[in-house]
Amino acid sequence: MTKQIVIDPISRIEGHAKITIHLDEQGVVHNAYFHVTQFRGFEKLCVGRPFYEMPSLMARICGICPVSHLIASAKACDALLAVRIPQTADKLRRILNLAQIIQSHALSFFHLSSPDFLLGMDSEPAKRNLFGVMRAKPELARDGIRLRQFGQQVIELLGGKRIHPAWVVPGGVSEPLSVAHRDQILAGLPECISIGERTLHWFKSLLDKYRDEIKSFGNFPSLFLGLVKPDGRIAFYEGKLRVVDAAGNIVADQLEAAAYQAHIAEAVEPWTYLKFPYYKPLGYHEGMYRVGPLARLNISDRCGTARADQELAEFHELQRTAVLSSFYFHYARLIEILFAVERLEQILTDPEILDRHVRAFARPNSNEGVGVAEAPRGTLIHHYRVDENGLITWVNLVIATGHNNLAMNRAVLQVAKRYVNGQRLSEGMLNRVEAVIRAYDPCLSCSTHAAGQMPLQIQLVSPEGKVVDEIRRG
Amino acid sequence: MSKPCLATVWLDGCSGCHMSFLDMDERLIDLAEKVEVVYSPLVDGKDFPEMADITLVEGAVSSAEDLEKIKHIRQHTRILVSLGDCAVTANVPSMRNVLEVDKMLREVYLEQVAGQPQIPNQVVPALLPQARPVHEVVKVDVFVPGCPPPADAIYFLLTELLEGRQPDLSALTRFGK
What we know:
The complex is a heterodimer. Chain A is of the alpha+beta class.
């Protein structure tokens, strides 16, 4: 069936993302689209810049996960230098990355999504936010603030600044870690473990209540993709790509991340600025895959730390196949927080972490470099080419949120089919559409963006292309 | 008496200024006592309020949508604050200003993809030829540089404004800090 997409007058838009829901002749939801309406041009605006500016420049793609871009970018630059960075620098970057997983996951879970779980999907919108959580359950709000604060403080102690630290550089990092800062970070870990454990406990106790959402929130078969270590452990800083299918079978394993173009291609749709990556062997649409916390837990055999492994075992029992409901992204995020805190302790207690040799110096030795790391939202790929003077000539970025684009669209459709009937949109519908998108924690700053409670406008569109109903939240 | 209304909005920015706002950490709890956050990416907003007392704007004006939005917000805001280098100078978004929009879109969407190469033109707003700082299109009352401005600067800014004073932020932030 052909359908027409309405181009809305621009004056009606209050946010950077928008959803349209299309009905068939019987008034039944036929399709739904998640539109990303911002374009920032990073792939083009850095052409001609010296490569060593790239980490700092690329961090400005996103203030929520600047560290992810710093790391993927620096790794691409390491490849341009064709050096192996000092081991201590490698470990310090891992610490920064884990700290960021903690702060970003805390933001997603506590600041943005917990109002839905605590106050309810149908609660009053004016109170359904972090400030409402502060009133209803202050200890939960405080836990979230503390956890995020810890992650941000670790970033500040290492990089000198919470957002956009200039400390990650091609060849390593610019400053070693001091004893005092190491000890300060170590001292903060027990509180984070407690917060992680009690939040997991609380969230698991809620799952029964959200059976309907679990069933209809982006609950469908797809592939899952992410980095794993050679032994199948979860990986964040470095690893190789593994692809798992909906049944939980490994489809491809230990693929070189730098050769991503052999496995991943991108498509474009006319109604969104966000591209659609897909798994090449299966083609566009069929090659839909998910990345991020849910995917990482689905593809990993184990975490490699005591508490997280115990939780992971329980998580895998949710479903005999891969865990398919996008609602469980939240659950996965909490397990990853626990893992990140445990892993921080392992790395920080390694005596080598205080070594002063943290940077390799070199000129560009290769004209092409790829850097891949796991961002909070999933696999992040930076790919650069330079001329003989080290000036950037070409850039390709495959952003974590982009990988999930096909799945997010599919998820919106599933929620629309479940909660929209007839000709009317309701507030509960609006929030559930938001909530399913929120489960993916999309970073549209990254993909081009609006974070947080997504500013959304939803339109119901008839087969003739007429807007039947419209609801928006700014 | 009802609390003063605070709004925050971002245009073409990275949301780093909003993250720095959250970096006020536990001071957010104090702040929530003093103001009502009525419109922001961080709350389930209604429409933009009839009159916000303070609006923090992050990001440059880059698309037709940004332009429309900031004009509307200016009319409904008492004190408009340009928060961060992108709002104040157009900063990183303005790096695209030397490029021609059509050519840039062609390269990104036609040359760098395998599937269905085409330039998005449905639903999505058109880009302005250049990314501009906020004060070029509407009057701005307070400028706060920084990439992003540190949380301390944002907290000081808000507490001073709420006390009816014009904050002097020179000791707390500077461009790029």
